[in-house]
UniProtKB/TrEMBL annotation:
This is Lon N-terminal domain-containing protein. It comes from Hymenobacter chitinivorans DSM 11115. Residues 1-184 form the Lon N-terminal domain. It comes from the Bacteria. InterPro entries: Lon_prtase_N, Lon_prtase_N_sf, PUA-like_sf.
């Protein structure tokens, strides 16, 4: 059912389930936050890409205001809910400073492929180990979704938006698997070259081959 939703366009993609901390300083978005507090309502973050507001966005719930400054600025905590599509964009909501949109929710299929997940998990472990981010892998819950790792896979904002535009977990698995298969050999080779460069100028203790 289409409904009007306050919008806060940003140069980033937010995935469902993600926790996002924001510093609010513009008057229009301070007004948006105050309205959310008063009504208990939500707002949307559509990515601002290619000099325009994207058709898709993520609905956000205000979790809390951590700090309010004397000049009216504030630090807030939010959590992402689901994905929506903007049917009509309004530069200003009726009687408000901030933008709004007539939106409709997008239904997502959570079903995934266990074999694909196993291969992705193996690649993610290799990637995080090569980049020195092994703790991220250790902290990864067994029931993780693609959304839970997407920001740490070297995707561009446009690629992250492509993930947001998918409507099934299995489709996201296929996109991420192809991405990892492309970038992992490059990253592994880069790290190997870094190791070789670090050895330059040092005495090397090498075992000669037997022949």
């Amino acid at each position: 059912m289409p409904r009007l939703l306050a919008l806060f366009p940003l140069n980033l993609v937010v995935f469902p389930g993600e926790k996002l901390n924001l510093h609010i300083f513009e008057p229009r978005y301070r007004q948006l936050v105050h309205d959310c507090v008063e009504s208990g309502g939500t707002f949307g973050i559509p990515p601002y890409l290619n000099d325009g507001v994207s058709e898709l966005g993520t609905e956000m719930r205000l979790v809390g205001i951590d700090k309010q400054y004397e000049n009216g600025e504030m630090d807030i905590r939010t959590k992402a809910l689901g994905v929506f599509r903007i049917r009509d964009f309004h530069r200003q909501a009726p009687g408000k400073l901030y933008a709004a949109g007539t939106v409709e929710e997008i239904t997502d299929d959570p079903g995934y492929d266990e074999i694909l997940k196993g291969r992705i998990t193996e690649y993610v472990q290799q990637l995080y180990t090569a980049l020195g981010l092994r703790k991220l892998f250790v902290d990864l819950p067994p029931a993780y979704r693609i959304y839970d790792v997407a920001h740490n896979l070297g995707l561009t904002t446009e690629q992250e938006y492509q993930l947001l535009a998918t409507t099934s977990e299995q489709e996201r698995q296929e996109i991420v698997l192809e991405h990892l298969e492309n970038i992992l050999p490059v990253i592994m080779e880069t790290e190997r070259l870094k190791d070789r460069a670090r050895l330059n100028g040092h005495f090397k203790n090498l075992t000669p081959p037997n022949f």
